[in-house]
Amino acid sequence: MPSTPAPAPDFAALIQPDRGQPAHRIEIIDAAGFEPWLTAQTPMVRAAVAGQQFTAKPGSSAVLAGADAWHVVAALETGSWALAKLAETLPEGTYRLDEADAPLLGWLLGQYWFDRYRKPDRSGPRILLTRDVAAIEPAVRLASATALVRDLVNTGASDLGPAELEAEADALARRHGATVSTTRGDALAQGYPMIHAVGLAASADRAPRLIELAWGDPAHPRIALVGKGVCFDSGGLDIKPAAGMRYMKKDMGGAAHALALASLVMAAKLPVRLHLLIPAVENAISGTAFRPGDVLRTRAGLTVENTNTDAEGRLVLGDALTKACEAQPELILDFATLTGAARVALGPDLPPLFTDDEGLAADLLAAGIAHDDQMWRMPLWDAYDDMLKSDVADMVNAPEGGLAGAITAALFLRRFVRSDIAWAHLDVFAWRSASKAGRPKGGDAYALRAAFAMLAKRYPVR
Questions:
Q1: How many beta carbons lie within 10 A of that of residue 122, not counting itself?
Q2: Pairing relationship of beta strands 352-354 and 376-377 according to DSSP bridges
Q3: Cβ(144)–Cβ(262) under 8 Å?
Q4: What are phi and psi of 356, to 5 degrees?
Q5: 57/440 Cα distance (integer angstroms)
Q6: Where does the secretion signal sit in this chain (predicted)?
């Protein structure tokens, strides 16, 4: 197997300004207009339509021969993925839409691939000509950021540990003129005790660390992005069963989201002072593994009774959130593949949003609806705070019984965030269990487009 990632799709080449270049025409038809359109066609066209079983069902298409070239008739789905099925299924070539342009993201991500571990099995590119030239660059950025999340999550843990996450941050910094600093070893043990404890059982080449990236004018409003970077989660001494461990390469999905969102912020040159923090660890098992019953100290000065070594994500995030608050940002967003309880409550596609800030909640939810990237607000229910009580420490990391698991995890994180800082926690799945057009099975981004749209609206480029 290759030791380096396969090249990502060149999204910038897949959408070009329409300057009248030769291209196959895509004729858009909806269900209401299908019968009148069909009646007006020649018997040969009607036979071709019938032969390809095209009935203007959304997402369907047919290729029709013309006097000098062939063209496509298609019925588009609604939303961001309207063109995804076409991009997946049309022959290699260049195309243009007859009517107003549809959202471009689906066309790009319909041609996403991940073939790092297998021989490429794909046809050549499908290029779309568009008259909406201003929409090209934003669509390419969103597709590239989404592909980054997918690539990182899809990569096996043997090829993506804490050092590789650090390398991703370094590469991002080089592209955008940012700086990266990393804390590891004794400095980590002293300054970030929970990150150190969670990652202590891993081998030396997968040692725990806190990765920080800084970018932007210090005079601009400061924002922080925090991403859970558990590169593999065995569950620790509270070991997961085999089925539960199968996809734990994706437990760094929060870090992948934070890196991707940081890339969007920097590429768009939003007027912010960006602080990206990734606590990167592997939750492994060895003689140095942290244990159930251990009392962990924290950067915030609190103590945590470890009641479950498989509730490690909130531990590493606690130290990272404490560090983020020390710089006094006006906004913190954290992303984490944090709880199975979130999946039980809302399923894989709908990330729960936790925040006490009403304005931030409203902005994120509105952006999710506007950009077809929704989330669902869940309560930071104060009455459940008592579930975090410990007999020997300031709190436990995982209450007994498992009730309200996503909420109590968010309440744990809230203990490490200053009340005067706007903060939102997104418990993302980072995985798609079944393929949809433009969204293959495997790693995927959730609430990424919504979060960026919210930031772009709050901090517009003048």
A1: 11
A2: parallel
A3: no
A4: -95, -5
A5: 21
A6: none
| Spatial distance between the Cα atoms of 207 and 364, rounded to a whole number of angstroms | 35
Phi and psi at residue 368, to the nearest 5°: -60, -40
Query: Do 184 and 209 form a contact (C-beta atoms < 8 A)?
Result: yes
d(CA 176, CA 270): 12
How many residues can be counted in the chain? Answer: 462
Selected catalytic residue, list 25, 116, 141, 240: 240
Cα–Cα distance for residue pair 444/256, rounded to 1 Å:
10
Could you tell me the two tokens for 389? Answer: 């009580």
Bridge partners of 156, per DSSP, are none
- Token output for 188: 């980590």
Q: Are 289 and 182 in contact (CB under 8 A)?
A: no
CATH architecture of 140-458: 3-Layer(aba) Sandwich (3.40)
137 phi/psi in degrees, rounded to 5: -60, -45
Q: Give the pLDDT means over successive 10-residue stretches in the chain (462 positions).
A: 58 95 93 94 94 94 85 93 94 86 92 90 88 94 98 98 98 98 98 98 98 98 98 98 96 98 98 99 98 98 98 98 98 98 96 98 98 98 98 97 96 98 98 95 98 98 94
Are the C-beta atoms of residues 398 and 307 closer than 8 Å to each other? yes
The CATH code belonging to domain 11-131 is 3.40.220.10
Beta strand residue intervals within 307-430, DSSP E: 331-336, 352-354, 376-377, 395-396, 422-427
Classify residue 310 by its DSSP letter: T
Q: What pLDDT does 150 receive?
A: 98
Nearest CA to 56 out of 69, 38, 80, 39 is that of 38
Give 414: exposed, middle or buried? Use CB within 10 Å, 0-12, 13-18, 19+.
buried
Examine the residue annotation and report whether 436 is marked as an active-site residue of this protein.
no
Pairing of strands 24-28, 70-74: parallel
Say if CB 140 and CB 108 are below 8 A apart: yes
* pLDDT confidence of residue 89: 92
pTM confidence score: 0.96
What span, in angstroms and rounded, lies between the C-alpha atoms of 379 and 303? Answer: 25
441 is catalytic: no
Query: CA–CA separation, 193 vs 45, rounded Å?
Result: 70
From the list 85, 96, 126, 314, the catalytic residue is: 314
Which pair of structure tokens corresponds to residue 394?
């300031």
Q: What is the pLDDT of residue 120?
A: 80
